[in-house]
Amino acid sequence: MNSIPESNKLASTLQRALPALKFLAVCMLILLLGIPTMIVGFLSSDRQSSARQAASEISSQWGGGRQILSGPYLIVPYNKITTTEKTEWRKDCKGNAEKCEVRIKDRSSSRQYLSIAPDVLNGATSLKTEKRYRGIYEVPVYTAETRIEGQFEPKNLSKILQREDEVLWSEAFLSILVSDRRTFRNKVELLWNGRGLSAEPGPVDRRETFAENVSGIHVPSLPIDPAKKNAFKFDLTMQGALKFGVIPNGRQVAWEIKSDWPDPSFSGLFLPSSRDISTTGFKAHWQLPQIARQQPTVSKSGKIDALVRFAGPSGTANYHRMSFAGGAGGGEFNVGLFTPVDLYSQVDRALKYAMLFIGFVMISLYLIELVGRDQAVHIVQYLFVGIANVVSYLLLLSFSEQVGFDLAYVISALATIVLIGGYCSVILRERRRAAIVVVVLVAVYVLLWALLNLADYALVVGSLMVFAAVSITMYATRKVNWYNPKESEFSAKA
After folding, report:
1. Domain span at residue 167?
2. Residues 375 and 399 grouped into a single domain
């Protein structure tokens, strides 16, 4: 009896194991394609960084960027009188202690400050927007026209001051704080009890200083009548970009912001009590009672910066030198010029599903080859198909910057489908099987588009897609004899 040579046995074993080995090689190739996919992701992050830098440069040149308006604050200096008593012994005095002891009162004063909030504060801001460009990048900027009016009614200060304290009403001033001094675009005139007064640069008088680098304006020498209500009104024209915030100072605050920007983003401690948003713009209204804001009517301190809330150099809000709760948004309420479609975030989301969809296409091609068995597909040809899928994401990124994400997606999808479909019609040598690959590609890009637009249900849809892909693969290979694919049932029927 003739024995089968060992070389023939080894060759026969390798041939039977070849389909399984090739399947593992395709899976390994899918994983390796994650490397160029990551490179495309790094490129997207770099382009996004460039876009942010361009936005920062434009914002900086257009009024300093995000603007926070804080105030108005009525700052009233006063001399705090401190009286101390001490006992001294008369010189050359002889006798009992009562005749020789002398009681002396020592009187000293120190400069302190009061911050009095308006009883009523009404504000109305109109944001007129436009787009500024730096190369291919665009940034929404605005011109904010704000009217602020209200009433100061100095209360009886006996509860907060001592009888000896001397209030310096003649040195009182009104202060308005902003994030950046470059924001102002008009000369500010304050109408105080019907009398016009001009504002001066800086949030305080030159004789006073802030511990922080704070910008703003102030109106000195206010003709205050502490016995009655003092009405005020003034207009501000400011420039900024991306976001506008307000830290209002008042017992009862009503503020309205309207704009021609159709996509506002509201943030801060308080959301608008009412809003009206349309394709032509928005209008929002805030109603903030004192009980909700827990703000005292009158505060006192030895330093002015302990009496005000302001937007610091880092863009965060500070209160009494501590982190203010509205710091994340900048003010107690803010409006951002939201861009609904951030193409870089859309591209990044698409890249998260890249390995999944590349795997769909590669495994589909392998199943077609396995079932057909007429024409073998080389592992290098699998590599070309995978690279074509990766390049589609590069096309998506580059075209998105020029024509927008939606049109770029259509262009990259059609280009990839045509390229891979034509290539498969040659390597598979049968149009019917190449058509199957095209159908798979179309389904992949349609499903990816659905995932990108179903943010809340993306995980559910993605999970169902993976489950369906695994189920189809298991069903298609249920009758495969992995030891000898030529003896599989579907091969005999083919």
Report:
1. 62-337
2. yes
